[in-house]
Design goal:
Elements (H helix, E strand, L loop, with lengths): L1 E9 L5 E4 L9 H21 L4 E10 L7
Antiparallel strand pairs: 1-2, 1-3
Length: 70
C-alpha cells in the first residue's frame, strides 16, 4: 500500500510535511503518484490564495507494508 506525502515551503516559514487526513492508501505507486500531484497542486493554490509565497514544493509516495495497517 502507498500513501501520499506533500512538503510545502513558504517564504518566511519552515517547510511543512503533510499527509492526507483521513489517511488514504493506494494499491499502486502510479495511482498514488497521480493523487500526490493533484493534492500538491491543490494545496499550493490554497496557500497562494491565502497570500503565501511558495518557495518550493515536493510530493512523493511512501510504501507502507500491509502488516502496519492493522
Amino acid at each position: 500500500m502507498w500513501k501520499v506525502l506533500v512538503v510545502i515551503c513558504t517564504i518566511g516559514n519552515p517547510c511543512t510535511m503533510f499527509v492526507e487526513d483521513p489517511m488514504k492508501y493506494y494499491h499502486t505507486e502510479s495511482e498514488c503518484t497521480i493523487a500526490a500531484e493533484v493534492k500538491a497542486k491543490a494545496m499550493m493554490k490554497t496557500f497562494e490564495d491565502f497570500g503565501y509565497q511558495i518557495q518550493s514544493e515536493a510530493h512523493a509516495c511512501q510504501y507502507i507494508s500491509d502488516q502496519k495497517l492493522t
